[in-house]
Amino acid sequence: MNVLAILIPVSVTLGLAGLGAFLWTLKSGQYDDPAGDQARALSDRFDDNPPS
Amino acid sequence: MSMACPACAGMPPPQAAPGDRAPTHVLHLPDIHCAGCIAGVETALMARSGVQEARVNLTLKRVFVSAPGLAATDLVETLAQAGHRAQRLDAARMGGEERAARDLLMRIGVAGFAMMNVMLLSVAVWSGAAGATEKLFHLISAAIALPAVAYSARPFFASALGALRGGRLNMDVPISLAIMLATAVSLATALGFGDQSGWFDAALALTFFLLVGRYLDRAGRASARSAAAELAALEAPQALLIEGGTERIVDADNLAAGDLIRVRPGDRIPADGTILSGRTDLDRSALTGESAPESAGVGDSVAAGETCLTGALEVRVDRAGRETGLARMAELVATAETQRTRYTGLADRAARIYAPAVHLLGAGAFVAWLWATGDGWRSLDVAISVLVITCPCALGLAIPAVSTIATGRLFRAGLLVTSRTALERLSEVDLVVFDKTGTLTSGTPVLEGMPNPVDLAVAAGLAQSSNHPVSRAIVAAAKERGIEPRVPDHPAEKAGQGVEGLLGGRPVRLGRKEWIGAKGDAAVWLRLGDAPPVPFTTRETLRDEAADTIATLRSDGYEVALLSGDTASAVARIAATLDIDRAEAGMTPEQKVAWVEDAARQGRKVLMVGDGLNDTGCLAVAHAGIAPGSGLDAARSASDVVLLSGGLPGVVKALRTARQSAARMRQNIGLAAAYNAVSIPVALLGLASPVLAALAMSTSSLTVSANAMRRMR
């Protein structure tokens, strides 16, 4: 059962990483305009000259 | 914010950090729908000097522009040149809804994370972990669950506390009780005070599912509210103020009594006032519903909301801003609105029965078990299982899930639902009342009959130099019959009278009968030199879809009525064409309201469909209201559904969808009740374990959501 000592922190850390990732997506406004992002994904307007 | 992936890095800079440069203008773009439109709008705006940033939000159909020093009208013009229709939005009128929604999403995220982790640990316990392992797992669960519950379930606790302070019970009281009791007892178990099952996963699952329900509900309400705010923010009225001989543009709200304003032909009059100089025809249809323009001159009073058609005016403001008749009417509507929001929806009615029942059941279970076994911990365990299992996960999702899906479906069909209980109220409607002018008819007149081609050619030649609706009808009729207009020399428009000119040396006149010197009933008269005057009569055109819509409504089992302020003959003709039996003519707005209230007293559920200020009262009093998007602001904000595109068939669509979604809501409540009917006896008998509770909760929530998503026909 010693393996639990490793596995439990690992599982909790993974969970926290997932939560962190979700909160980051939320904070960076990735749910603000789903329809627009969907349309922009295929735009090649900035392919040659990406804004820094 | 740094972007890691190349696709994101390829995005234009404005999106980089929302909020680091606040947009100075927000424009509404009703027509955009694809990547090409986004690129077109952004490039056009960025190409204009003075624009620092332009970012389109396709979901909201808005563009956020940062251009200090530029006026919104400049931007609208820039877009118009690029071929995009844009309307100015008053950003101040749209509140910060987004923060609240984001806060709720964050709580959902935390609850979801905690639920999954605790569930993993719980599965181990359920499948037989015992002794020290079980104890350890309980402690870890407690460490995850306690902060998560404290954070995520705060909205429920706050709402329950508020209700209890006010001496009421709401749905959040049993929810909070279940979550807190379950957490507290599990904590006691984890710390070794008792030997009962752990309910952490149940407490978290409860929080998670209920938060999702709450989020959907909020999203629905927020979109309804922002739709209404958006409509109100459209067309922020402006006025041309005359000050010491110069003119400048000001907001209509900033006018004061005694100010002098100029009104140009085609302008909407921004305030109530008296005409000091000038003469014009006024389109009063917004206020009276009458399509025929009225002439007005020096000394006559004008009211906000009317449109000046032909001549320029100088007007002394008598009442402005909130004082105008238009604003007072809007306030009356707002009062009527608050009465309608007291309508108790299905969810509220269910909650009212539900909340006390759950408490009685839980308390009853505890007392009965204590009396039968004398084991306090065991009794508490049973009471918690009853509370958790009866907790309205499914009930919380049952209605918001359906209304979110139905509202989204209607939005895609060009219908904007602006009120939260609109669908339920629409589903109860049995009498549909239409307004005539502007709703069933297009509101623009067409020429009636077949005038002599020579007369028509002369009339059209004169009419070309006027913007009056009747003039436009004459020009259109000539064009349709392929008659070349004979343009007179020196045509001049006499505001409020007509047009005159010289044709081959003879004076010709087209205008109202007093000016021409004719006797009879016609829209305008034409006089050619000394020849007897020739009458031109007009009639309104029915909208193309009107007949179909009325017929479909009747076959769907609705009774249809027509209320109009127009003359009896005009109304009778329309009613006969559309086969409507109940038609009332010559009604004032007050009479219309009385008619609708009377029908309501007879137990009818009235749906009002209208567009003008004269219908606004009706829209507000009726059980439900629908207004076309072309209608007046006040009418749109008093209605539950706005027809943005698609026209009258939208009424049928809205009613059908409403009926279906109300049926779906009742089904969902039935489903949730059925789950409870099975699980409550099990819980009362003390047979419900945390596994069973978790299963019942998830399956019932999934069933209800799946039923909501089932295709509507």
**What is the end-to-end distance of chain A?**
52 Å
Question: What is the count of distinct domains of chain A?
Answer: 1
Regions with little confidence, pLDDT below 50 for 5+ residues of chain A? none
What percentage of the residues of chain A does DSSP assign to strands (E)? under 5%
Unreliable residue runs of chain B: 1-20
Calculate Rg of chain A over CA atoms: 19 Å
The gyration radius over C-alpha positions of chain B equals 32 Å
Strand content of chain B: 15-25%
End-to-end Cα distance of chain B, whole Å, is 45 Å
Mean pLDDT of chain B: 78
The largest sheet of chain A, given as strand count, sense and whether it forms a barrel, is: none
Could you say which overall geometry of chain A the principal axes of the C-alpha atoms support? elongated
Q: Count every beta strand of chain A, where a strand is a DSSP E run of 2 or more residues.
A: 0
EC number (chain B): 3.6.3.54
Membrane topology (chain B): Multi-pass membrane protein
Domain HMA (chain B): 23-87
Enzyme class (chain B): hydrolase
Structural summary, described in words:
- Chain A is mostly helical and 52 residues long.
- Chain A has one domain (1-42).
- Chain A has helices at 3-27, 34-40.
- Chain B has 713 residues and is an alpha+beta fold.
- Chain B folds into 5 domains: 21-89, Alpha-Beta Plaits, CATH 3.30.70.100; 98-228 and 361-403 and 661-709, no CATH class; 238-334, Calcium-transporting ATPase, cytoplasmic transduction domain A (Distorted Sandwich); 415-442 and 542-644, Rossmann fold (3-Layer(aba) Sandwich), CATH 3.40.50; 449-536, Calcium-transporting ATPase, cytoplasmic domain N (3-Layer(aba) Sandwich).
- In chain B, the strands form 6 sheets. Chain B has a 7-stranded mixed sheet, with helices on both faces. In chain B, strands 6-5-7-13-8-11 form a 6-stranded antiparallel sheet, with no helix packed on it.
- The A-B interface holds A 1, 4, 8, 11-12, 15-16, 18-19, 22-23, 26, 28-29, 31-36, 38-43, 45-47, 50-51 and B 1, 6-7, 9-13, 15, 18, 34-35, 38-39, 56-60, 98, 102, 105-106, 109-110, 113, 116-117, 120-121, 133, 136, 140, 144.
- Chain A: Keywords: Membrane, Transmembrane, Transmembrane helix.
- Chain A: This is Cytochrome oxidase maturation protein cbb3-type.
- Chain A: It comes from Palleronia abyssalis.
